[in-house]
Amino acid sequence: VKMYIVACALALVVLISPAADALDNGLALTPTMGWLHWERFLCNTDCDSDPDNCISERLYMQMADVMAKEGWREAGYEYVCIDDCWPSHQRDARGRLQADPKRFPGGIKKLADYVHSKGLKLGIYADVGKSTCAGYPGSLGYYETDAQTFADWDVDLLKFDGCNMDWTLVGEGYVNMSKALNKTGRSILYSCEWPLYEWHFKKPNYTAIREACNHWRNFDDVFDSWSSVKSILDWTAFHQDMIVPAAGPGGWNDPDMLVIGNFGLSHAQQESQMALWAIMAAPLLVSNDLRDICPRSKELLQNRRIIDISQDALGRQGYRTAKVDTFEVWERPLSKNRLAIAVINMLELGGSRRFFIQAIPGWKICEPQCNVTQILPQYQEMGVQTPRSKIHLSVNPSGTALLTITPIRDFTGSHKVQWEDTSVRRKHTIL
Length: 431
Ligand code: GLA
Description:
It is a single chain. By secondary structure, the protein is of the alpha/beta class. The chain has two domains: 291 residues, Alpha-Beta Barrel (TIM Barrel); 112 residues, Golgi alpha-mannosidase II (Immunoglobulin-like, Sandwich), CATH 2.60.40. Helices cover 30% and strands 22% of the residues. The chain is built from 14 helices and 18 strands. It has an eight-stranded parallel beta sheet. Strands 9-10-11-16-13-14 form a six-stranded antiparallel beta sheet, with helices on one face. Helix 6 runs parallel beside helix 7 and helix 12 runs parallel beside helix 14. It is globular and about 70 Å long. The two termini are 29 Å apart. The structure holds alpha-D-galactopyranose.
């Protein structure tokens, strides 16, 4: 009996504690939200002929202006993030990184002050190896100098890339930069690409990664296309047994940027990306031109109900639970025993297709009753349902139906549960 109790207690500890300790910097308790320049603006340094789209202080100031003015900050988007191609090709006389003087005449500290004055935070980019992916100076040999420089500039987030590094040293490099950031005493959210650069050679150690990073990229860079978004979903589902348990408050799997509001995705596909990034508890870092975005994409990115799923306090990552016909079902456990459910129609042919709601594996939480809210493709309270409800969802090609389900428990204290089966208009009692 004693052994049994010990075993039960152990099982409980395992169940309620996260897979591993998170990086203990108090940041990213829910997935990071913000804007990141890379997918949309790449390494455009030609400010003479393309001043509006080149990587310059103006770009981040203008994004910060729009984020503060047009509801982005209120919706939760907080970090304005610089990616590759910001620095000068040379370090300064004291070995410090410096911003390109022509494109960042005010320097990064001034830019951080500006972004902070808008109630937002600034992110910057560096690389664990000899040089960045685009050939700018890397941090190898300079981890403490660079961490201190970023802290002196009042930077709030570091995206640390993994190009141009011996793969056997990648892990050590990421851990050392994590320690260097911690040593500065400034709260700097640490966004890693550690597993992505290890996967070609070995299985990454997610326990170690979670102890060092606030989020981590696992897979290829996102492109502005549905095939790219789909490949990320496929990779994630295929590896979910290994990566989902690693996610939780303080540390998240990062499937890369949201490309909503650009050129490549249909509206249904944009809804799918938004829904699935919320289900995956992914950082919501948009890469688009906030100064010029279509109202429907803006509304989708600012959809409070989807953001609530993303930012749910339970902090558990969702996963694929079924493939039915041409559909995929993904589910994410939420706080208060609720469940978020995404049903994607993968058939890129024809019109909308019907999906029988009882085919959702998690639908069983509707015993004896549940309350159902549809969030996508449009908001609709679907009311009280039961395990026997005969509803169909209607899902467009490459679109997603997104729902939340709230179980309604029997609070009478007895084990007798009653529900009304509206489809046959009869009362059932189970004992
Ligand atoms: C890598 C990263 C991208 C981006 C570029 C910049 O490809 O995965 O997210 O930062 O480098 O060069």
